[in-house]
C-alpha cells in the first residue's frame, strides 16, 4: 500500500524561485525522492509538462487573500456519487479523477494497483466507512475534459462553489 503525506503549496515557483501571485494558475507535481515524496509547485510559464517519473500532478489557482474557504460536501455524499459513476462507463475519466480526490481526502485508501492481460491499469481502493473495496480503471482524462470534470465536481462538492 502506498501511503504518504502531501505537503502544502510552497507558494513559490520551483523553477524560477518567484512567489506565486494571488489568482495565478500554477502546477504542482509529486516526485519520489528516496523514501520521501516531495511536492514542487511551478508557475504556468515555467511548467513544461509532467516530469517522466512524477507520481502525479495537478493544476491549481493560487487563492485570493480575502477568499473564503470552500467547504467540502460530506464524505458519504462524495462516496455515494463515486459508487453511482461505476454504472456509467462513459464517465470513467470522471470516476478516476474522483477516486484521486477521495484518496487525497483520505475517504479511501490505495490497496494495490493491478494490470490486466491487455495492460490496462486498475486501482484497488478500500473504504473504511463502508468496509468496501473498489476497482477503478485508470482513465486519464483528455486535456479538454479536465476543466469540465473539475468544474462539475466543484459544483457538486464545494458548498461555496459557483453554480
Structure notes:
This protein is of the alpha+beta class. The protein folds into two domains: 67 residues, no CATH class; 83 residues, no CATH class. The protein has a three-stranded antiparallel beta sheet, with no helix packed on it. A three-stranded antiparallel beta sheet has the order 4-5-6, with helices on one face. Helix 1 packs antiparallel against helix 2. It is globular and about 45 Å long. The model has no long low-confidence stretch (mean pLDDT 85).
Quick description:
The chain has 163 residues and is an alpha+beta fold. It has helices at 75-85, 92-104, 143-157, and strands at 25-33, 36-43, 54-61, 109-115, 121-127, 132-137.
Q: How many angstroms separate the termini? A: 37 Å
- Main sheet characteristics: 3 strands, antiparallel
Spans of at least 5 consecutive residues whose pLDDT stays below 50 are none
Tally of distinct domains: 2
The helix content is: 10-25%
How are the strands ordered across the major sheet?
2-1-3
Q: Secondary-structure blueprint of this entry?
A:
Layout lengths: L24 E9 L2 E8 L10 E8 L13 H11 L6 H13 L4 E7 L5 E7 L4 E6 L5 H15 L6
Antiparallel strand pairs: 1-2, 1-3, 4-5, 5-6
Helix pairs in contact: 1-2
Amino acid at each position: 500500500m502506498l501511503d504518504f503525506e502531501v505537503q502544502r503549496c510552497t507558494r513559490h515557483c520551483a523553477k524560477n524561485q518567484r512567489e506565486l501571485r494571488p489568482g495565478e494558475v500554477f502546477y504542482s507535481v509529486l516526485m519520489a525522492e528516496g523514501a520521501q515524496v516531495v511536492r514542487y509547485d511551478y508557475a504556468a510559464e515555467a511548467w513544461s509538462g509532467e516530469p517522466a517519473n512524477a507520481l502525479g500532478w495537478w493544476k491549481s489557482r493560487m487563492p485570493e487573500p480575502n477568499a473564503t474557504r470552500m467547504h467540502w460536501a460530506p464524505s458519504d455524499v462524495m462516496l455515494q456519487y463515486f459508487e453511482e459513476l461505476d454504472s456509467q462507463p462513459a464517465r470513467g475519466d470522471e470516476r478516476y479523477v474522483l477516486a484521486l480526490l477521495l484518496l487525497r481526502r483520505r475517504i479511501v485508501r490505495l490497496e494495490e494497483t493491478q494490470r490486466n492481460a491487455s495492460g490496462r491499469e486498475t486501482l484497488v481502493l478500500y473504504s473504511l466507512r463502508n468496509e468496501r473495496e473498489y476497482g477503478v480503471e485508470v482513465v486519464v482524462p483528455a486535456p479538454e475534459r479536465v476543466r469540465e470534470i473539475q468544474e462539475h465536481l466543484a459544483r457538486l462538492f464545494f458548498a461555496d462553489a459557483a453554480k
